Amino acid sequence: MASISLTGSFQPMRDTLERIAGIGRNPENVLKAVGHIVLTSTRHRIEQEVDPQGQPFKPLNPQYALTKEGPGILRGPNFNAGLYGSLTAQASGPVLRWGSNKVYAAVHQFGAVIKPKNAKQLSFEMGGSLFHRGSVTVPARPYLAFTSEDREDVLTELEGFLRRAMRPR
Fold this sequence. Notes:
Phage virion morphogenesis protein, Phage_virion_morphogenesis
């Protein structure tokens, strides 16, 4: 049998493997970078008014659009207000959460039928007119998702973390 024996210090290799393993043991820094990626792509979709599959958002009710504050759909008077401005990404240990804490965020993501709780009808003003309705349907306008483009960007970011971990020190 042919064999090769290696002698000497394997400490540089051990150190490198330890740095790589450290990424898995404490992924918070990687997840913070991933959070930035998904937050950026979520904001970009809202700016483009498309869902995660690239389909246009359902249009606003024309009456509502007459007096809506701010540009476009899911955006308030400026980019720091409303749903768009509320988007955050937070990494803690092995968990990444991103989205909005606005009470209406899920309504926009999944759609909803809004019904009165303590009255026979909803009463609201829209486009300068007063309306009374038994219910109002808000169409789903999904904005949160982990897309194939996000996956590619995340893999590129992870490769960067691994490349840095493998650099000789």
